[in-house]
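Running this now, will post back.
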Amino acid sequence: MQVSIPADKITSHSIEVTWLPPHNPNGKIGYYFIYRESTDGLSTAIRFVLPGSTRAKLVGGLKPFTKYTFSVVPYNLRKNISGRSFSQEGLTEAAVPSGPPRNVAINSTTSTSFTLSWDPPLEPNGIIQGYDVMYYECKDQNKKNILDNVEDRVYTIRDLQPWRCYRIHVACQSSGGLGPFSDYVERRTDAGAPPPLGTLAPPDKETIESFSFEVELTQASNEKGVVSYYQVIVRELATDNKDQPVRAPDPDYYKADDLYTYEEARKMKPQLLPYIAAEFNARDLDHYKRFVVGDGERTLKVSVDISSRRRRREIDTTEFYNGPLEENTYYAVFQRAYVSKNVYTSSSWIEPVETAAVTSPTQQPESSTNVGLIVGLVLVLIIIPILLATVYFIRRKRQKSGTPLDDRDDYSNGHPVRMKKLSRKRRSLQKRLMGSTESVDALDELAASRARRHPVPIDDFERHVDRMHMDGDHGFSEEYMLVQPDDEFSFQQFLNPANKYKNRYANIVAYDHTRVLLNPIEGVAGSDYINANFLDGYNRQRAYIAAQGPLMETFDDFWRMMWEQMSSVIVMLTKLEERGRRKCDQYWPERGTRNYGQIQVTLKETLNMSHYTVRKFVMTHKMSPDDERVVKQFHFTAWPDHGVPSHPTPLLSLVRHTFACNRESIGPMLVHCSAGVGRTGTFVTLDVMLQRISQEDSVDVFGFVRQMRYQRNFMVQTEAQYVFIHDALLEAISCGVTEVEAKDLGSRIRELRQVDPETGYTYLENEFCRLAKEEHHPIAFKSASLNCNSTKNRYANILPFESTRVHLKMRPGEMGSDYINANFIDGYCQPRAYVATQAPVPDTFEDFWRLVWEQESAAVVMLTREEEAGKVKCHHYWPSEGSRLYGVILVELLEEASFGDYISRKFKLTHTEDKDSRTVNQFQYTDWPDTGLPDSGVGIVDLIGQVQKWQQQSGNTAILIHCSGGVGRTGVFCGISMMIERLKAEGVIDVFQTVQAMRLQRPAMVQTAEQYEFCYTTLQEYLDSFDLYANFQ
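Update: finished.
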């Protein structure tokens, strides 16, 4: 019997199979006809029963370009016996792909290219011969470009225009033809460098003085990307033997990381180095248009960090000083316009400018002096009568209109005003430029994009944040560009010469229409001015005052503002000094009482906590000494010098505590950092959004930040801060409010033990599961993962975070000698109050005692037995009697005593090289069962009390805690210890936030849901043991 497939009977979706009957059928026969895909052993066989007269079968509904196996089996109808199977393979013809390529994505961009990737279609229906890529500008969809026969699935489209929006489609070309194009992906190319700025005009000769001169800056084009900020770069020039200036290298020779600050350049003399005299936002160009080189102004750094690759050096500053020049010296200046930190264009150097020599008045010729005197007298005699007449007529006119002359000055009285023409010295900053006419299309697109921003429902917020984070936070970058208002606001009081010394930064202004007006002091010009603005809050106008960090010259004004506005809470978000730079002056008394003008301030109490300090002041006014007002200052000390906090938990805690403290306050909450815009705006946004979340079902970060910027400039100063706000709110929404008052703990535990009908788990288990969301990149465990350290880890899956790990002192030439599996854990009041570590293994006995010595720990808490359930949990790392040497540390057992559920061992540690000695107490808790938990938490609470007593005697150094892995029982002990501290101080408990904070410092602290519940029940037992409720109500 022969089975065949005629070539002309094959299509892309069907095959006809023919056959001849067997030579000896041995009776009446029929046929079983069976087919299946040849390439898929799991495919289902399709079976037909055909009569014996059948000689062909047309099979339809097949997949294109797919191999099938067809079998014909004759069988005897009478005996129901099958014969041998006869088979033939057939391949359907190719067809066009059924669908487009999948997962089309733009992976990276430059100013002139996109690199994209895609996956083949699920059903290419033939041999893939290549791909067609179609792209076009979003605004010109008729002009399509098609790249055909692209072979690779990663492709770079080149020769694009900078800062243009493009749409891209991809189609698959198979042997059956070209398939459909994919839906478009849309992206804007990166901004390119603006066109060259040309040459700056030389300064007018009358502006050249001994220590300064004036140059006119120019505006860069926005056609290739919106200019973000400008720099003015100055360089002193050497002179040749003819006293002529030696020209500096072309400005493009100096990369961004080749520029110095004024202070650095002076230190490096006699080298002549270029320095940044000023840096300012592009929209403030009009204010700096007539730029005075050497005027002594300081500008706040508005760009991201500029780091050097060539010299491994970083500009260590957050502000730039336009310091005075030297007399009789040549200088050159150029201007640089930045789109981003590495995309910029420069002007040419101005022609060399020689500053004037200092001239003594006594050197003027006598004839010149006499002539000047005569001319001056003549002018006075002419002008005075004219002035007197003018004043008389103006007063007559004012009296008729009922407006006193003294009420009309050149400065705003605090109400919104339209922009006024300013003199050359104090013009524009107020003109909020977003670009020139060359970028009208881009600005129209930005305006349309702004209009599409709406509040985000809480239920969609996680998906929204995830989308914004895609492609390297691309969504955040686009949205952050839109927050700046287009409106113009005046700030004439900021520009008032009488107020110049009151401003910390020359480009952080106080808008007139929202500025805080102090009660004026009679006869003192500008006495109603302070660099501070009111901000509206959630359903409350003027809920906040955003202020700069006080200067020594403004201490009196600051406390006057606190008194007049009846504020009772200060939030301070900067350290006094960061990276060697003064960020804020200490405006409060270190101890006792201090007078600030009419205000007397007394420090009553200081509470230091791990991330912030709370100071309680009492202030009185000399005019009403019996009126005592309490002010609390929350000084957040965990904001890093650069960037944003690594995790939002500490700042969210501060926001909640300050909100609770300010709830009954009559006056606004005063918030300041250094400039009073970046960190201040971040804090205020979080506070307002958390209030909104508690009352509404949506979040509107974009809308609120824009609203703030109508009231104070630059609020939420960086994109990183804008992203941080979203991440922090996402955590707040995901975690909810988990803080509970002591009196409500029992009912809270009963609620948590109820079963959630949606998940089938208890609410407590759900709460615990929320802790385990975060995944960590391997780089987070960098040192722990090194081969040289692998034997030092008891468990391969319990490793210390790199960011918080304890560093031992490095031994020269010994790789990994600074490593031990241990992390610092912050306590309630004290940073790094605990060291959480694993039980030592034989390879780390010496490192363990080095750790104890170097951290000066006086208490070691051991929460495991050496062997449990037949397994070694901890090796015997101490001498059972006498002494033993561990490296350079001699450990001597002084005494051992058993106290029911724990053993106390006192050791004398001696450093054999330094000959110094210390006493260390090891507390070993022995009542933790091999599996599960202690029957009661009373023993743990008692042990915590004993450890704290020992700490008070020995200096409150870091407590070293370990179990076997250093995470489960160790986390329970640390958590309960710090929660008892907070319970005593505040009367509240927050198990979730406490455990989450620990897990940010060491993974898996409090390892199981049972241990998590044990924390709750132990705290309840603690409360039940004492009549404490009265203290917490």
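The radius of gyration is 39 Å. More later if anyone needs it.
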